[in-house]
Amino acid sequence: MANTQELTLIDIAERYRHIRPVPRMPNFAAWIEGVDLTQPLTEPVQAELRQALNDFEVIFFRPQSITPAQHVALAKVFGPISGGSYFERKPGAPELEMIVFDRDRPPSIDNWHTDISWKANPPLGTAIQITVTPPAGGNTCWSSTSKAYDGLSPGMQAYLEGLSAVHTWEVSAFREALGRRGDDALIAAIKAFKPVIHPVVRINPGSGRKCLFVNADFTRHIVGIDRHEARSMLNFLLDWMKKPEFMVHHQWEAGGLAVWDNRSTQHYALADYWPHQRVNQRVTFDEPGAPAATVNVNQQVMHGDKP
Questions:
Q1: Strands 58-61, 210-212: parallel, antiparallel or unpaired by DSSP?
Q2: Largest CB tally within 10 Å, which of 161, 184, 199, 283?
Q3: pLDDT tens digits, residue range 200-233?
């Protein structure tokens, strides 16, 4: 039978005074009304935006015409700017990664993933704007890994909390892309980004919620248990997190924006619009106090963690 755990909805009227979140799912994913991103954001607005990200895990803004500096300013509300990944950068705005698909560059990231979970300190989150949309399609889905954890039985929750998993880019499309560049590029990446271990259940420090932290792109295996059990358990979790009750399916309008918490969500970009164009500008941000991250933007060797 379905989970019958009683649901208590977030009290928006009590918690918010300067912005208006409009939830799209129970306690997950919300439109943010009443915020003009073309203007400087006051401290009370910034504080409530951070609260909204903790409450709803992914937040959306209606189309707005913002500058690169305003895009970066939005990301900085939530944390220091991250080095991001290995994508083309917007001329004059190195913090903005450009993720462009068109006839010559078909969309290929139709897989559930958590951005850059193959690093010891994955980014806190990402702020994106889709500036060019295809005539139809090109949507993005987000899944709440905290809702997925809450939906498990108490016995399964207790079992998973004692487990860890290996994350590595080597099980993703990165390896094939690097292989096409030659042995030197592949060996350099192997040396630079070794596999890391993360708990299967992590606590999001912003919200205090427990979240499942495995994904189809970068989690290689669960450690500490028999390999057959580990494979079956990982497959179960990856399938479990795709339940529609944990998911929001977002249709983009040109100029629309989204900010998500990478610690408690994963996402999937639909690849259903080729040969039409889709242009995504994104700024990634880290946990406050996390080690500073840098990326050599000329070393374009890895692709594949884009929404």
A1: unpaired
A2: 283
A3: 999 999 999 999 999 999 999 999 999 999 999 9
Question: Strands 140-144, 219-223: parallel, antiparallel or unpaired by DSSP?
Answer: unpaired
Strands lying side by side in the sheet with 278-285: 20-25, 28-33, 58-61, 257-261, 125-132, 278-285, 93-101, 88-90
CA atoms within 13 A on the CB side of 89: 18
Would you name the residues annotated as active-site residues? 113, 115, 267, 282
pTM: 0.90
CB atoms within 10 A of CB 178: 22
Q: Which two tokens stand for residue 81?
A: 């700017």
The whole-angstrom separation of Cα 147 and Cα 36 is: 30
Distance CA 189, CA 226 (A): 29
Report residue 243: phi and psi, to 5°. Answer: -60, 135
Contacts of 120 (CB under 8 A, 6+ apart): 196
What DSSP letter does each residue of 60-120 carry, written as one string?
Answer: EE------HHHHHHHHHTTSPBP---S-EEETTEEEEEEEEEBTTB-----S-B-TTTTSS
Residue with tokens 């639909």: 270
* Exposed e or buried b per residue across 54-80, where buried means at least 16 C-beta atoms within 10 angstroms of its C-beta: bbbbbbbbeeeebebebbbbbbbbbbe
* Closest by CA position to 215, among listed 126, 125, 287, 143: 143
Q: What is the Cβ-side half-sphere exposure of residue 73, based on CA atoms within 13 angstroms?
A: 15
Q: Indicate the angle between helix axes 173-181 and 183-192, nearest 10 degrees.
A: 130
pLDDT for 37-76, tens place per residue?
Answer: 999 999 999 999 999 999 999 999 999 999 999 999 999 9
Tokens at 222, concatenated: 């669960």
Q: 221: helix, coil or strand?
A: strand
